[in-house]
Design goal:
Blueprint (H helix, E strand, L loop, with lengths): L11 E2 L3 E5 L6 H17 L5 E6 L5 H14 L3 E5 L5 H10 L4 E5 L8 E8 L7 H9 L5 H4 L7 E4 L2 H9 L11 E6 L8 H5 L5 E6 L20 H8 L5 E5 L6 E5 L3 E3 L1 H14 L6 E5 L5 H9 L3 E4 L3 H10 L2 E5 L5 E3 L8 H14 L3 H13 L3 E6 L6 H9 L8 H6 L6 E6 L1
Length: 429
């Protein structure tokens, strides 16, 4: 009997995987369909039959991960399942560590608590290119019996945390610390807890955490680090209890920060600070890649430093493709994703946090000093983000917007075609 499946209509394709609502479209039935397609994709590509699986702190993440482990094992694929909730960058690292050509993590990243999803990572150390996820979706229509085996694969529980933290530590230099530094990290009830603490152990940097416990409700708000979700973090740093504050999203691939003098630092600020430090203090060079929503500050720094800057569409997979083929120093997104060409073609917020700690502890004036120097070169910056929900068809809306002259594209015009529900994330310097 031929077993053919149509793609689950409510399981939305994302830039690096699939996402849906828990118990609505993200169900064991739909995950089984997707898992079978991934199994067929592995067989079709003649990959070495091995996969690494991780999961985050959401409802039933581990249950879904174990379910997929059993499914892949049944299909003759050896499974390395990470022992505890892990960041997506840790899953990416583990895919290389265990010499697998594909890995996945059960996560919905920064999205609301009842969203759930699956992210794919490849053996080259980054997000899948568009054709890879498309090929997996094509495998939804392949005859199940043609490519799969009856020989079971092993399921092996692994704990790569020490290997990962040692790898990240190797990119950092805490040998010239000038002061005892206190850092507070908001892990937003997600997967990044303890990572920075392990990396900075015995360095003179003290790391504390807030929102440390695993909570599938994420304290009542989505685990997305931005101005309005980091008020407690800001209060602790602005109240001089800590020198530096850092916040990550639910799966640990995004970062924002807080400094004592400047307060909340948007992803635009963080990426500019890190770029300035890597170029002027670490002597690193290469192309800089930035998403179209990143703003002008990083571009202006590149002009000053004589570095090539390339603007890319939103979605880190666009940076990944460039990082695989060119010498890239830094790749940054407006949402706080930062990747480093001297590591993997992947955003890694823990490595970014480690660099901020190095800056704060080794330079007189720390992050505030660097940001002041950045403003001397690129001017002061204002970042404002408004999230709207369209009240008309998105394609119609874009046609209207494309007809506008820049001076006509006003906030009041936007409100005419959007629902009144909106939130803001701002950083006024």
């Amino acid at each position: 009997m031929t077993n053919k499946h149509q793609c689950p209509v409510n399981l939305k394709s994302t830039s690096d995987g699939w996402r849906g609502k828990l118990a609505e479209s993200f169900t064991f039935d739909n995950i089984e369909i997707l898992g079978e397609a991934i199994s067929r994709f592995i067989a079709q590509k003649s990959f070495f039959k091995r996969i690494v699986i991780g999961y985050d702190t959401r409802f039933m993440s581990k249950d879904f991960a174990l379910f997929l482990s059993t499914l892949f094992s049944k299909n003759g694929i050896e499974v390395f399942i990470i022992k505890n909730p892990c960041t997506t960058p840790l899953l990416t690292f583990s895919t290389l560590l265990f010499q697998s050509q594909i890995g996945l993590t059960v996560t919905a990243s920064h999205n609301p608590r009842f969203d759930h999803g699956i992210k794919i990572r490849m053996g080259y150390g980054g997000a899948p290119l568009t054709e890879i996820t498309q090929d997996i979706e094509k495998c939804l229509l392949i005859d199940t019996n043609n490519l799969l085996t009856t020989k079971k694969g092993k399921v092996i529980e692994v704990d790569p945390i020490n290997d990962y933290t040692e790898k990240i530590k190797g990119f950092l230099d805490f040998s010239k610390i000038t002061k005892q530094t206190k850092v507070v990290v908001d892990s937003m009830h997600g997967t990044s807890r303890n990572l920075l603490k392990k990396i900075t152990k015995n360095t003179g940097i003290e790391v504390d955490y807030i929102n440390y416990n695993y909570d599938p409700y994420f304290g009542g708000c989505p685990p997305e680090p931005k101005y309005e979700t980091t008020k407690k973090l800001q209060s602790l740093v602005l109240g001089k209890k800590y020198d530096l504050g850092i916040a990550h999203d639910g799966d640990g691939d995004r970062i924002v920060a807080v400094s004592q003098n400047y307060g909340y630092l948007s992803p635009h600020d963080v990426s500019a600070v890190i770029l300035w430090y890597l170029v002027l203090k670490k002597g690193v060079s290469g192309k800089v890649v930035g998403s179209s929503t990143l703003g002008r500050r990083v571009r202006l720094l590149c002009q000053h430093f004589g570095l090539e800057f390339q603007e890319i569409p939103v979605g880190f997979k666009n940076a990944t493709q460039i990082m695989l083929n060119q010498k890239v120093l830094l790749a940054a997104e407006e949402n706080g994703g930062i990747g480093f060409g001297f590591y993997l073609p992947e955003r890694d917020a823990t490595l970014a946090a480690g660099i901020l700690c190095e800056i704060e502890s080794t330079l007189v004036g720390g992050v505030d000093y660097v940001l002041n120097e950045v403003e001397k070169l690129s001017g002061k910056s204002v970042f404002s983000r408004f999230n709207f929900i369209p009240s008309i068809n998105r394609q119609q809306l874009m046609l209207l917007i494309l007809k506008l002259r820049p001076k006509d594209f006003t906030f009041l015009y936007c409100k005419k075609y959007f629902q009144s529900r909106w939130s803001k994330n701002y950083s006024y310097k």
